[in-house]
Design brief:
This protein is an alpha+beta fold and about 525 residues long. The chain has 9 helices and 22 strands. The N terminus is likely disordered.
Length: about 525
């Protein structure tokens, strides 16, 4: 409407300018009285020679100091309704007849009406306004509800901003409680398994996730853990989230700082409690660090990853979207200053892994680990041996794969081989092998749920010429099933069963069934 008012005002200006400008040079046809033959001839000659001009500077007899210069300039350049003679003159002092005035005024008004029509073509009509009013009335309830929701969101945002923990640090936490028991009451390696000895344990973690640049991460975790694995006289079947002492004292557990070295290279400096999942992709759908997914150490990731230490450095470099190279050096005695320990003289694990991801549903990991004084964490007693305290080094090779046949059907598995060399005392070599096949059913029954089955062989000594470690006589199969049910966004319930067919890879031992119920609270 502002444009419309402007054009109406302008049209008045045009008329005034015409009245003030004495000129006969109009672009329109100019009728004259029939009884004035000489004037008619002259006007006809004018019609033949007049031509439209686009700039007032084309008129040689119009000067900037003329009293009507600005009015003439507007009529020529803004409205395009003034013509000049072929010789480039305007002849502004020539007398103006009433016919000429009428013709010129009509030409300019036509031009003004054309401009007004162009300016108002997109303006809202009365019909449009009526439609809007009708829609507003029909959706008044929804608009009121939406307004209330927006007000609520604004209030909550203001409250969160006023009470936020930190502008640079996110506070999060997790509590895992486990009820477990051995569901069989027989013997392993000549010793009784405690029967009907149900236990309840808890692992609690408080995590501070800080960032100083928006791209880096300082991670600090405070934890306590009194969960213990069932005592079945072998390391097979132990629980991944179990502690080692049952101590409930809280302490700084994990601490690392991660930052980008370049666009495709990420560096992580780990001061404590580092693990394989901190430095590489373990390529297992069930690796939830004990909080989610598999409950056993064996079912969580390829056991060769257990030969890493917990303090050091990890580097990940991405070669595009499909290939990642992971390098890590983690020491188990980095903080110990005594001889034979420290960052480089003590136990360590050095990892190199290529992770290939040709699609969102397919992943493949090729892993090599060189370690020193780092035993396996699960398997038979022979496989987890510390070799009678002798110094030893190991070379481990692993392959892990995950294949999503669909969004709700994922096949996976791994194989791992470890060759350990005893370096002192009665030297010798020990070969250990393990493998597993996994089946995952994501979102089974409800989005966020996960059902899983693991079938495999925990680390087994398949060959040894070291006197302190013997070859395992038989093969025990690890069969684990669980169903992770999402009660809410913050609570997950996971019942699980672990079946060892010949514990400690010895068929003289009775099979063992371990039952567990894990509840995970996240905030």
């Amino acid at each position: 409407m502002q444009k419309l008012r402007t054009y109406l005002i302008t049209s008045s200006t045009v008329i005034s300018a015409i009245l003030c400008t004495t000129s006969g040079a109009w672009a329109e046809t100019v009728p004259v009285p029939a009884n004035n033959l000489e004037q008619q001839v002259n006007n006809n000659n004018q019609q033949e020679v007049m031509s439209q001009v686009t700039s007032v500077s084309q008129l040689s007899d119009v000067q900037p100091n003329d009293w009507a210069f600005q009015s003439l300039q507007s009529l020529v350049e803004r409205y395009g309704c003034i013509a000049g003679y072929p010789n480039g003159t305007y002849r502004g002092n020539r007398a103006l007849s009433r016919y000429e005035f009428a013709a010129g005024l009509n030409a300019c008004l036509d031009r003004v009406n054309e401009l007004i029509a162009t300016a108002t073509v997109d303006l809202t009509t009365k019909q449009d306004l009526a439609t809007i009013q009708k829609l507003q009335a029909e959706f008044s309830a929804e608009l009121t509800t939406l307004r209330g929701r927006v007000d609520t969101v604004e209030a909550k945002t203001a409250e969160l901003k006023a009470h936020q923990f930190s502008t640079t640090t996110k506070l999060q936490g997790q509590v895992v409680t486990v009820v477990s028991d051995v569901l069989s009451n027989k013997k392993v390696n000549g010793a009784d398994i405690p029967g009907k000895n149900t236990t309840l344990g808890t692992r609690a973690r408080i995590e501070l996730v800080s960032s100083f640049t928006g791209k880096d991460t300082l991670f600090t975790r405070i934890a306590s853990n009194n969960i213990l694995s069932p005592g079945i006289n072998t390391s097979e079947g132990n629980l991944f989230f179990a502690g080692t002492t049952g101590n409930t004292n809280a302490a700084i557990d994990a601490l690392f700082y991660a930052f980008p070295l370049s666009k495709n290279t990420q560096v992580k400096l780990i001061a404590n409690a580092g693990a394989a999942d901190d430095v590489t992709n373990t390529v297992n759908l069930f690796d939830g660090d004990g909080s989610f997914g598999a409950l056993s150490t064996f079912g969580t990731r390829n056991p060769i990853y257990g030969q890493l230490g917990d303090k050091g450095i990890g580097i990940n470099h991405q070669f595009g979207d499909k290939l990642t190279l992971s390098l890590a050096y983690l020491s188990g005695t980095a903080n110990n200053p005594t001889p034979g320990n420290g960052l480089f003289d003590g136990s360590y694990g050095a990892l190199a892994q290529l992770t290939v991801k040709p699609s969102d549903r397919i992943s493949l990991g090729l892993t090599y680990i060189n370690s020193y004084k780092q035993p396996l964490l699960t398997g038979s007693n022979n496989a987890t041996s510390t070799f009678n305290g002798e110094a030893f080094s190991s070379n481990s090779y692993g392959v892990q794969a995950s294949l999503g046949l669909s969004k709700k059907f994922v096949l996976g598995g791994w194989a791992g081989y470890t060759n350990s060399k005893v370096l002192t005392g009665t030297k010798g070599d020990v070969d250990t092998f393990n493998y597993a096949v996994t089946l995952g059913l994501p979102d089974l029954g409800k989005k966020g749920n996960l059902a899983g089955v693991i079938v495999g062989m925990e680390p087994k000594v398949t060959g040894s010429n070291f006197a302190g470690v013997t070859k395992d006589p038989n093969t025990s199969y690890h069969i684990e099933g669980f169903y992770q049910y999402k009660l809410s966004d913050n609570i997950t319930l996971t019942p699980a069963v672990i079946w060892l067919t010949a514990p400690d890879h010895n068929d003289k031992n009775d099979n063992v069934v371990i039952g567990a119920l894990r509840t995970t609270f996240s905030f």
